[in-house]
Amino acid sequence: GAVVSQHPSRVICKSGTSVKIECRSLDFQATTMFWYRQFPKKSLMLMATSNEGSKATYEQGVEKDKFLINHASLTLSTLTVTSAHPEDSSFYICSATARQGSYNQPQHFGDGTRLSIL
Amino acid sequence: GENVGLHLPTLSVQEGDNSIINCAYSNSASDYFIWYKQESGKGPQFIIDIRSNMDKRQGQRVTVLLNKTVKHLSLQIAATQPGDSAVYFCAENRRSNTGKLIFGQGTTLQVKP
Questions:
Q1: Which of A42, A72, B85, B111 is most buried, most CB within 10 Å of its CB?
Q2: Which residues pair with B90 in a beta bridge?
């Protein structure tokens, strides 16, 4: 149980392109989803928290107009990197929890999206 | 094998030995802790969690120990296998964070055959 699927697993595109990444909870309803960014050999950096039906909460320093998050249903959240540039190249990972605001439940992670901007 | 101090980046152990991965957490108000395993090119995989009302919890081949006095968490892996090679992250949470995890730096575990 608690499977999170992320798509695509890898994207290579030209500078200036917008890229959408999907995060789905396959066997549970995810009221809260999280988006992380991870650089090589580094830990996970939280970008934003998204609750179904409401606006995402972004961490300090993360541009909300650059990284658009939509959590329109209990099983799907999307992250769109708008007008992507080489510095946006990274490993993006989503996670989900079943209960909104629950702090003592584990987050379940997708397998990440490797984004490469040429 | 064991890493000491504020998590060394890499821990090398012989196959079959026990591994101990350490983590020092930052906030004394944290009351929920998780260990994740991340293999290359994949997302973190849940291993085991522990709440602050416990000081030890066991799973299959893994044990998590929590010492709230010194804000220290450890993951013990018994009879380490090549498939255990990965990066291991500890993460902490507290009620005021409403679900946001704070991840540690991570420790790379290398298992030598």
A1: B111
A2: B35
What is d(CA B16, CA A111) in angstroms, rounded to the nearest whole number? 28
- 3-class secondary-structure state, position B83: helix
The partner residues of B65 in beta bridges, in order of sequence, read B56, B74
For chain A, list residues whose CB is within 8 angstroms of any CB belonging to chain B.
2, 4, 6, 32, 34, 42-44, 46, 49, 93, 95, 97, 100-112, 114
* Inter-chain CB proximity B32 and A111 less than 8 Å: no
CB atoms within 10 A of CB B100: 18
Express each pLDDT in B32-74 by its tens digit: 999 999 999 999 999 999 999 999 999 999 999 999 999 999 9
**Which two structure tokens, joined as six digits, stand for B66?**
């929590």
Q: Chain A residues with CB inside 8 Å of B89's CB?
A: 43-44
Beta strands A10-13; A113-117: pairing state: parallel
Residue B3: which pLDDT band, with cuts at 50, 70 and 90? very low
Residues 6+ apart with CB under 8 A from B37: B44, B45, B47, B84, B86, B87, B88
**Band of the pLDDT at B98, cuts 50, 70, 90?**
low
DSSP 8-state assignment for residue B28:
T
Residues B38, B102: contact at Cβ < 8 Å? no
SS3 B84: helix
